Amino acid sequence: MTDAPATTPPESPPPAPAPRPHPRSVGRVEAPAARDLAAIARGEIREAMVHAEVGKEEPVVEVDAFSLFYGGYQALHDVSMRIPRGKITALIGPSGCGKTTLLRSVNRLNDLIDGVRTTGDMRLNGDSIYGRDVDVIELRKRMGMVFQKSNPFPMSIYENVVYALRIDGQRDRRVLDEVCERSLRAAALWDEVKDRLHESALSMSGGQQQRLCIARAVAAEPEVLLMDEPCSALDPIATQKIEELVESLVPHYSVLIVTHNMQQAARASDYTAYMVLGRLIEYGPTQSIFQNPKLPETEDYITGRFG
Amino acid sequence: MTQLAPAPSTLTPQPRPRQPRPSHQGGTLLAAGEPMVWLLAAGLGMAIAMISGLVALVVWNGAATFWPVPVVEVRTLDGSIHLGEVVRSDTYRPDEVVLQSIPEGDREAVRAAIEGEGGLASRRLLRTANFDLSGTHFTWVDDFSIAPGGESNPEWAVVVERLEWGRFVGVPLRGEQGGAVVAEGEEATWTWYEDHHAEARRLWRERRELKSDEMGALNRRIEEARLDLRRAELREQAPPEWVTAWTDLSRARAVHDESGIEASRSRLAAIEAAGFRPNERFLEAIEGYEAIERSTEGEFAALRGRIEDLDAQLAAEVMVLGTVDGQEQAIPLAEIVRAVPQNRLSWFGRLGVYLDRWMEFLLDDPRESNSEGGVYPAIFGTVAMTLIMTIAVVPFGVLAALYLREYAKAGPLISAVRIAVNNLAGVPSIVFGVFGLGFFCYVVGASIDQLLFSASLPNPTYGKGGLLWASLTLALLTLPVVIVATEEALAAVPRSMREGSYACGASKWQTIHRIVLPRALPGIMTGAILAMARGAGEVAPLMLVGAVKLAPELPIDGTLPFVHPERSFMHLGFHIYDLGFQSQNSEAAKPMVFTTTLLLITLVAMLNLMAIWIRARLRRRFAGSQF
Q1: What is the pLDDT of residues A51-75, one digit of tens each?
Q2: Between A4, A16, A167, which is nearest B504 by CB?
Q3: Which chain B positions have a beta carbon within 8 Å of A217's beta carbon?
Q4: Under a CB-based contact definition with an 8 Å cutoff, are residues B475 and B399 in contact?
Q5: Would an 8 Å CB–CB cutoff place B53 in contact with chain A?
Q6: Run of H or E including B206
Q7: I need a labelling partner for A136 at 20 to 30 A (CA). Which of A30, A78, B359, B565 fits?
Q8: Residue B79: other Cβ atoms inside 10 A
Q9: Which residue in B1, B3, B4, B511 has the most chain A C-beta atoms within 10 A of its own C-beta, making it the best mutation to test that interface?
């Protein structure tokens, strides 16, 4: 999905299946708004369940009634959420629920796709992202992004890390060297590659390549770091390394991470947002989402009954 | 999309009785796939057989051309006698007319012999040469017409390659210097020849340099001065009659022809009365031209004297050879490129002659209307044209492909452009030649002439076929190849890489320039290689835009401005055509066709190998070992 959303925008949602009564949800009358997914699929508008703790955090990115259309298909429905500064926020949800689309909307990568239309706005530290006269390139310079599949550039490790500075015209060797070392250290890669900085980045292992991409993303001191399932193509050991790395990045960086792996979200994030069918369903501190979700749909998903 | 709640029917599928599928062994032959494998392999095998057959034919024929073959002397039944190199042999079915040429006494025996062979007879083609004496280069000799014991390999038969009249085959009789015999007998003459030939050739080369270089430099100076004068004339808008009258006046003055001076003066006066008055600058230009004409006159005379001296010296040393039928021919040593006693040579001697002939072929100018000598100007022209074409087409095609693939919005217009580009690759190449002639030569070239070379008009400088126009025409011809290959290379750059670059805050151009282009470079090089291969082998359009039969002046030489892209040039492909179809001595030109083809193939292969090597280096730079 992340690789080529342009060519295969998610197909229209399937006809809503008949609601299946859930044995546990029947008894849960204390849920303030018993949501049922079929109703959402039919297009009924529901308020997202946002826990109060989220509102207490200072936001780095604010999403404000944001909707996104791939041509005629609406991929995001009126999403509003605040991404806290200095924390790790995980986006979870079944495939095609729009979490990657939401992530890519933050740095406007979806602009590259023909026929994409948006309503609503986002703000990065108070500055509009979708405003009329926003310079998209300047905007992207304030963010870093790590993709599902590692995508080192066909150049040396060193040049990969300092790429963002190179395109800004930075030529001072001292600055570049310093940024390269700092970023590689931040990505826990320095000790492994310090002797072969000028070899091709493509000669590294898969896990190293992904950490190199993280180093590249943090090289320009981004205000927010966007991660799109960064471990989905890695083995458990490399995954663990990346998770530890991401945890070490806060509170210096703010991280918004899309993940398919619920254990990962539970382990490595401070806040978790659960999305279905392009809508934000529940959003709150990771602990309460996983241990005490307020909505039965969320519980179904995190317990593996659905999705 | 996520299946929110699978319908019960799909959740519990009805069990279906398992249908046994037909087993592999029991299936048809087609199901096993064997016939298809054979068919495909046969297709590939035929392709390989055809290609290797073509290469083998060209290599065999081309490589054999310069090998010294034995010289045979044959005496036929009717008493005629031939001496020559055996070029080839075949069998044919002789008819009655052929038999009539056999003397009556032997006819029946010959007829019986032929019928014994089933009506077939073998014959050999002898390169008897000596065109200046016999009027023919080659003679067919029937094996049945040879008198008993009439065939031999005379030890002292020498094949002489000379500057004019083609080869000469004969026996060295004596050496003469200034009319006096200095060596007599075969062996002594040969020794004398070997002692003196190198020196004679050195003098001959000196004479050639005098004639081409120094004489040429003088001529160029006069031509320059004439052009300066003409420029002044155009600038001052002088009537041409005035200039001719002025020139006549100065000529008449030089020879003190009083009546001529008077006549010219009155003509000048008449024109000046009509309104034209030469100003100072114009008179200076005229005087400058005349000064140069006067000063070069002396140099010309001196040069001519030196050349005449050399000519006399060169004509003095002569080797007299006797033909097999008793005639004598004196050949100046200077005119002998190479004399080879082919029957006396050991195998290594033959190898030496073979290599020497190859060197001449590769490094010398052609002579005898291209059927002898070398093809150096053609090699130079081919390489220069191919390189200029590549330099012109690659940036042009890459820019076009970049716009098409990266910037243009997909739509009917872009599809139409893409289809048009692809169709351009299928247009017959001669059409490009016509376009090159009509546009580059007659429009662009003529405009350049008008603007910059108006003094030398009506002689065109750029307004005719030349190296530059030929290269640009072929660049147009190969443009689709580059565009298509580049587009494919750009499309093959993964989307994730572009997105990674955009996410770093790179602009579109920065992404293209730093990520997409380096990554696509090997693919672009592949396009350039294909374009080079196509362009180097193309002949038809070149005939219209600058390839000529003989162009002794290379497009790059020591004369200012050193590079002359407007000059006509020789091309190996056109040279092959010229040898094969335009040569007067077609039998002698035939092996040269193969040799030149071999050379062209080798040259194209070498150009391609060079580009492939560059591509391999680029690949290593941009892609490490992945695993």
Answers
A1: 888 888 889 999 989 999 998 888 9
A2: A167
A3: 503-504
A4: no
A5: no
A6: helix B186-209
A7: A78
A8: 9
A9: B4
